[in-house]
Amino acid sequence: MTDQIETAELHGQPVLKLQTPDGAVALVSLHGAQVLSWTPAGGEDRLYLSPKAVFDGQTAIRGGVPVCFPQFAGNGPLKAHGFARNRLWTLANQRAGKDYVVVTLRLEDNADTRALWPHAFAAEMSVSIGGGRLDMELEVTNTGKAPLSFTAALHTYLKVREVESLRIEGLRGLDYTDTADGGTLKKETGVGVMVDDEIDRIYHQAPATILVREDDRAMGIHAENFPDVVVWNPWVDKCARLADMPADGFRRMLCVEAAAVREPIELSPGADWWGRQSLVAM
After folding, report:
1. 83-132, pLDDT tens digit by residue?
2. Cystine design at 96: which of 1, 6, 217, 220 (Cβ 3.0–4.6 Å)?
3. How far apart, in Å, are the Cα atoms of 242 and each of 4, 235, 245, 247, 248?
């Protein structure tokens, strides 16, 4: 059923179009192994892609699900969110069945990456769709002879109808680092997290499943092997300073990111690690 996986272009850049017989569709960019769009069967696109996103094969694409590796944000010597989202990945595997489609993209170290981060590695990003579900898995292997450590996240931009009208459930009682407040450690006391200002929080020891609830729909978010969850919205002022976002773009998006941030992943030579995030449209 290879006709369920097609090679296409979006704004001049190579993408893979995944589609299932029941009508689910996703676009995955080879640049960054980034899911750009996901429409569940019988539904509407549930990922936000900025209409001002840059598609030049070098710049990080604003929206979808950027892969943050080997560094999250500015927590290290590299540029924010590392280099994986700015690299061309290769198609390593693809398969399709009656109710699913899955592709795996691969990135390995080379002279350019070692100049930035002196480690040998292989990373694979697997994307699977079917029905009302999107599954994404990042796997990293230490292919070198020395230990390495990294932080990572699947920087998921959810497309929402109005960010002020939603509620995030499942985070009550958790400690979080409030990056918007200078990195202060706080505790979540609300039953549901509301967004009515800039929010940039890293929740620690997060539960496996949280829920983003809107008026007549919801998104279940399930993570495995990612101990943190990041919640981000730039709000008015920061959004206005982002050249690749419309001024009102913050109203139509919310980032809820499966992440490994507070405790870096440590890999000995030959060892590997994986982390998974699943979105279930409701």
Report:
1. 999 999 999 999 998 899 999 999 999 999 999 999 999 999 999 999 89
2. 1
3. 36, 11, 5, 8, 11
Pairing mode, if any, of strands 90-96 and 67-68?
Answer: unpaired
Residue 182 burial class via C-beta count within 10 angstroms: exposed 0-12, middle 13-18, buried 19 and up: exposed
CATH number at residue 109: 2.70.98.10
Tell me which residues are annotated as active site.
155, 257
CA gap 209, 269 in Å, rounded: 32
Q: How far apart are CA 123 and CA 89, in angstroms?
A: 9
Q: Per residue in 150-176, is it b (16+ CB within 10 Å) or e — as a string?
A: bbbbbbbbbbbeebeebebebbeebeb
Instruction: Give 127-184 pLDDT, tens digit per residue.
Output: 999 989 999 999 999 999 999 999 999 999 999 999 999 999 999 999 999 999 999 9
Range of the domain at 194: 2-281
pLDDT value at position 75?
83
